[in-house]
Amino acid sequence: MTAEPLVQVEGLRKYFPLRRSLWRRPGGGDYLRAVDGVSFEIPRGSSLGIAGESGCGKTTLARLLVRLLTPSAGRIRFDGVDLHALAGPRLLAFRRRAQMMFQNPYEAINPRFTIGRALLEPLVIHRIGTPGDRMDRVLAALDQVHLSPAEAFVDAFPHQLSGGQLQRVGLARALMVDPVFLVADEPVSMLDVSIRAGVLNLMKEIARTRRLTTVYISHDLALVRYVCDATMIMYLGTVAEIGPTPEVLARAKHPYTQLLLAAAPVPDPGHRAPEIPETELVPTPIGPARGCPFVDRCPHAMAVCRAAAPPLAAVGRGHYAACHLYA
Ligand SMILES: Nc1ncnc2c1ncn2[C@@H]1O[C@H](COP(=O)(O)OP(=O)(O)OP(=O)(O)O)[C@@H](O)[C@H]1O
Ligand SMILES: [Mg+2]
Questions:
Q1: Which of 33, 75, 77, 253 qualifies as a cystine partner to 321, CB 3.0-4.6 A?
Q2: 141-178 pLDDT tens trace
Q3: Which atom of ligand 1 is least distant from the CA of 103?
């Protein structure tokens, strides 16, 4: 029997109410459906990559997974327990076990704190260690993310560090509390291309040695291919496709995944990336849900695609696509 997945997500939705005058359109809804009914599991010790274009709900989903947001519907089970039933000490224990890394390292670390203080803070909140040994833990964490000599970084302020160094501090801070689950929201997208690999390799190595269960959010399918066991492609708040990374990227089934892959740069000067077709009607997650969210941009759109939302259908081993071509 296989162990229960660490994270089980079922029918998860997050709707944001719209300010009436601003976005409300005749016939439109009152809500923006940022996450619109997603279900998936994350096996223990594995890494899940989440990709999809800007605004498709990746960050909202990440924040739901670590309970920085409350779902509008659906549920998340973490280690077998409904996340939203947690309160008091059990919620605090969850906050220790699940950590998040943010896209912009300059926003993630308080600019008025020294690096040492930023790293001490989680130890104090979670009452880890003793006042006497906490600084040793901070120095060890800085060493672990290859910021050395660690002593030189303890008294530095965030603005004195490069983006890459600061993202390593963000990783060190997440690791201070010995988490089992790490959600990294675009952890390297703000960094220079030349230093991305170093930070990614470090994250990958630490996740492996600590047997962390991880979620990496990225626009960049090359990153997902490099780091993640499984890949989930989102489109307008829904799961378009999910499965083992080599399977999803080599045998993409959803027309949206196929377009994303075709548009990703390939090292061939003769290759011209096909454009993802734009439509007059820019797809939005506002207004009544109808049919497939991708229908207006899909080269294979059929009548049924306008009538009904496609269910996730099995298209390979552990590989699912939400497309009427396979339903
Ligand atoms: N607090 C909020 N209130 C209202 N709308 C929100 C809020 N947070 C996100 N949204 C909207 O929800 C949708 C999904 O946003 P989200 O930040 O999750 O997308 P994303 O996939 O992370 O995009 P990006 O790749 O640009 O980071 C967007 O349309 C966004 O404008
Ligand atoms: Mg985001």
A1: 253
A2: 999 999 989 999 999 999 999 989 999 999 999 999 99
A3: 27
Angstrom distance (rounded) from CA 254 to CA 243 = 12
Give the DSSP H or E segment for 125.
helix 115-125
Give the amino acid at 8: Q
Backbone angles phi, psi at 320, to 5 degrees: -130, 145
Note the pLDDT of residue 23: 55
- Pocket residue to mutate for ligand 1, from 38, 60, 61, 64, most atoms within 8 A of Cβ: 60
CA atoms of 46 and 141, how far apart (whole Å):
23
Nearest atom in ligand 1 to the alpha carbon of residue 217 is 22
What the block records as the tokens of 312 is: 């996730």
Rounded to two decimals, what is the model's pTM?
Answer: 0.90
Q: Please give the share of the chain, as a percent, with pLDDT higher than 70.
A: 89
Give the domains, in start order, of the chain with CATH numbers: 7-322 (3.40.50.300)
Can you point out the beta strands (E) in the chain?
Answer: 7-17, 31-42, 47-51, 73-78, 81-82, 98-101, 181-185, 213-217, 230-235, 238-244, 312-316, 319-322
* Residue 110 CA to ligand 2 centre (angstroms): 20
Q: What is the mean pLDDT of residues 94-101?
A: 96
Question: What's the chain's average pLDDT?
Answer: 89
Q: What is the per-residue DSSP string for 213-241?
A: EEEEE-S-HHHHHHH-SEEEEEETTEEEE
Give the residue from 194, 202, 191 showing the smallest Cα distance to 164.
191
